[in-house]
UniProtKB/TrEMBL annotation:
<dbReference type="InterPro" id="IPR022861">
    <property type="entry name" value="Gln_tRNA_ligase_bac"/>
</dbReference>
<dbReference type="GO" id="GO:0006424">
    <property type="term" value="P:glutamyl-tRNA aminoacylation"/>
</dbReference>
<keyword id="KW-0963">Cytoplasm</keyword>
<dbReference type="InterPro" id="IPR020056">
    <property type="entry name" value="Rbsml_bL25/Gln-tRNA_synth_N"/>
</dbReference>
<keyword id="KW-0067">ATP-binding</keyword>
<feature type="domain" description="Glutamyl/glutaminyl-tRNA synthetase class Ib anti-codon binding">
    <location>
        <begin position="347"/>
        <end position="447"/>
    </location>
</feature>
<feature type="binding site">
    <location>
        <begin position="268"/>
        <end position="269"/>
    </location>
    <ligand>
        <name>ATP</name>
    </ligand>
</feature>
<dbReference type="InterPro" id="IPR011035">
    <property type="entry name" value="Ribosomal_bL25/Gln-tRNA_synth"/>
</dbReference>
<dbReference type="InterPro" id="IPR049437">
    <property type="entry name" value="tRNA-synt_1c_C2"/>
</dbReference>
<dbReference type="GO" id="GO:0005829">
    <property type="term" value="C:cytosol"/>
</dbReference>
<dbReference type="GO" id="GO:0005524">
    <property type="term" value="F:ATP binding"/>
</dbReference>
<keyword id="KW-0436">Ligase</keyword>
<feature type="binding site">
    <location>
        <begin position="47"/>
        <end position="53"/>
    </location>
    <ligand>
        <name>ATP</name>
    </ligand>
</feature>
<feature type="binding site">
    <location>
        <begin position="276"/>
        <end position="278"/>
    </location>
    <ligand>
        <name>ATP</name>
    </ligand>
</feature>
<comment type="similarity">
    <text>Belongs to the class-I aminoacyl-tRNA synthetase family.</text>
</comment>
<feature type="binding site">
    <location>
        <begin position="41"/>
        <end position="43"/>
    </location>
    <ligand>
        <name>ATP</name>
    </ligand>
</feature>
<feature type="short sequence motif" description="'KMSKS' region">
    <location>
        <begin position="275"/>
        <end position="279"/>
    </location>
</feature>
RNA sequence: UGACCCAUGGUGUAAUUGGCAACACGUCUGAUUUUGGUUCAGAAGAGUCCAGGUUCGAGCCCUGGUGGGUCAACCA
């Protein structure tokens, strides 16, 4: 007989970073310690690409009993704001991760960084340069040609020290001087050509106020913060690969024993039909192409949340796409599959009609209201049942009726019989039109013996329609979303702006939709499956007297798929 | 005329570290179904960028190509 089949756990696949970690653990490195960090710059909202990084950083630490710090990379006060800090914290928590009391800011280290810079000056490894940005840039050379040394490169330690103090004390104006590392202007790696360490910026900082008027550059801050926090694995995206020698150079100047953080790079997430850079997302927000960072069409964490995505679905997605160094492009269909999969298990079923067509059941008693039994979630028996009111006048979906139904159309047509879910079999007897020939109403008769949806004589019907009572219902606004861009890779066109590929129909607002009374008291973020239509959640614009729903995702629809061809 | 990185079905990842290429999404059949959902059964689709080499044996190792990406912000 059977050996015990191992429980199917939510396996975390072993990616190349996990392999590195395991090799190091086996070699006894860092005393078996694993400590990662998630280091966002608070200059925008987090997007699904950050979510991948969050899952990687927190997930890796969890897997190896380690810790993860949240550290805001706030070295550029001209772009960073507290609003972003707050949203980032909310998003990381919502995704299901916790950094305990290890919430840090690069700005926490401004004093230590300043000291470290002073040390480098004293060791003759840094100097103050008086040249302007353009000159420094032109002396930098090109990737294929070495750079030129600055005329100030050989200043004495004393002069450098004096100048640096005066930079800090505000004696010079923005851009007048910089502190540079003295490394190698001929290095094949551009980042090693005397990189800038500090620049003058008389801009108040969101945390340090006007204490500083010089601010460290990213390269001069990141690795050192990692070092001071005891980070073992500094995981970042591929574009920082060429920065690694410089990262290591600073650590070399800092380290006092064997410990050193290791920078490992992985490929950032690209998704089809969207853009994934904070700069471009900010542009969409500023130019009002979307309603804000949390517009449900945005690939931001807050947008996905508002759209109805669950943290679980995003974590599963992150797990499924894996972690590699291949710069690829993930099909959004995979993201959509991840929500459907999660919501299918969890979402309360409900009937809602988006595009109403009135149906009068002519042989049904006027004024009668019957409470029909409906299953809350067929995937979860514990979710129980509810009552749905049935009346003589109801609404059905316009697309569920065709006057001249094609082959394989299982729904309603003249003379046809269908099932109204959880209610009765009805047969269409009349089609009522207005002067324009537009169908305004259907007349049907019902079979009282088919109460609940089955006929005692064993009669079968091909179609089952959802419906909502025309008198016992909740009226709602429903927002349907489509991809923001029509092109798979709006970024991938040279000489064309990504905004040229925007989908003009990415948002459709349906004003008069009818939902069964069950949803009446629902709150923002509550998710439902509107049967046969898709997953919908309550939008934050929703009011008690005017519910607003977002369509999170459509249900798979083989019929629609065949029609499309 | 540089440095660094990458290359496996349509897409994304695997392959016990050298042993007859697996999984997920997507696509297509069929079954079940009071959601044209879910579930279930099945199919098609790559011979691993190319050329050499090492080896009994290479997607994994070596060499050389090719293609793609990143780097020349006082951004991160």
């Amino acid at each position: 007989m059977s050996e015990k089949i191992p429980e199917k756990e939510p396996v975390v696949k072993k990616n190349f970073i996990h392999q590195i970690v395991e090799e190091e653990l086996n070699a006894g490195k860092n005393d078996g310690r694993v400590h990662t960090r998630f280091p966002p710059e608070p200059n925008g909202y987090l997007h699904i690409g950050h979510a991948k990084s969050i899952c990687l950083n927190f997930g890796t630490a969890q897997k190896y009993n380690g810790l993860t710090n949240l550290r805001f990379d706030d070295t550029n006060p001209s772009k960073e704001e507290t609003e972003y800090v707050d949203s980032i914290k909310e998003d990381v928590h919502w995704l299901g991760f916790d950094w305990g009391d290890r919430e840090f800011f690069a700005s926490d280290y401004f004093d230590k960084l300043y000291e470290f810079a002073t040390k480098l000056i004293k060791e003759g490894k840094a100097y103050v340069d008086d040249q302007d940005a353009e000159t420094i840039s032109s002396q930098k050379g090109t990737p294929t040609r070495p750079g030129l040394e600055s005329p100030h490169r050989q200043r004495s330690v004393e002069e450098n020290l004096d100048l640096f103090v005066r930079m800090r004390d505000g004696e010079f104006s923005d851009g007048e001087k910089v502190l540079r590392a003295k490394i190698d202007m001929a290095s094949p790696n551009m980042h090693m050509r005397d990189p800038i360490l500090y620049r003058i910026m008389k801009t108040p900082h969101h945390r340090t106020g006007d204490k500083w008027c010089i601010y460290p550059m990213y390269d001069f801050a990141h690795g050192q913060c990692d070092y001071w926090e005891g980070i073992t694995h500094s995981i970042c995206t591929l574009e920082f690969e060429v920065h690694r020698p410089l990262y290591n150079w600073f650590i070399d100047q800092l380290k006092t024993d064997e410990y050193r953080p290791r920078q490992i790079e992985f490929a950032r997430l690209n998704l089809t039909y969207t853009v994934m850079s904070k700069r471009k997302l900010l542009e969409l927000v500023k130019d009002k192409h979307v309603s804000g960072w949390d517009d449900p069409r945005m690939p931001t964490v807050s947008g996905l949340r508002r759209r109805g995505y669950t943290p679980e679905s995003i974590r599963n997605f992150a797990e499924r796409i894996g972690v590699t160094k291949v710069d690829g492009m993930i099909d959004v269909a995979l993201l959509e599959h991840s929500v459907r999969e999660d919501l299918n298990k969890k979402a309360q079923r409900v009937m809602g009609v988006l595009n109403p067509l009135k149906v009068v059941i002519t042989n049904y008693p006027e004024g009668q209201v019957e409470e029909m039994d409906a299953i809350n979630n067929p995937e979860n028996p514990e979710a129980g049942k509810r009552k749905v009111p049935f009346t003589r006048e109801i609404y059905i979906e316009r697309e569920d009726f065709m006057e001249e139904p094609p082959r394989k159309f299982f729904r309603l047509g003249p003379g046809r019989e269908v099932r109204l879910r959880y209610a009765y079999f009805v047969t269409c007897t009349d089609v009522v039109k207005d002067e324009q020939g537009e169908i305004v109403e259907l007349h049907c008769t019902y079979d009282p013996a088919s109460r609940g949806g089955n006929s005692p004589d064993g009669r079968k019907v091909k179609g089952t329609l959802h419906w909502v009572s025309a008198t016992e219902n909740v009226e709602a606004e429903v927002r349907l979303y489509d991809r923001l861009f029509l092109d798979e890779d709006p970024n991938g066109h040279k000489d064309r702006d990504f905004k040229e590929f925007m989908n003009p129909n990415s948002l459709t607002v349906l004003d008069k939709c009818y939902i069964e009374p069950f949803v009446k008291d629902s709150k923002a973020l509550d998710s439902f499956q509107f049967e046969r239509l898709g997953y919908f959640n309550v939008d934050s614009d929703s009011k008690a007297d005017k519910l607003v729903f977002n369509r999170t995702a459509q249900l798979r629809d083989n019929w629609a798929k065949k029609q499309g061809k």
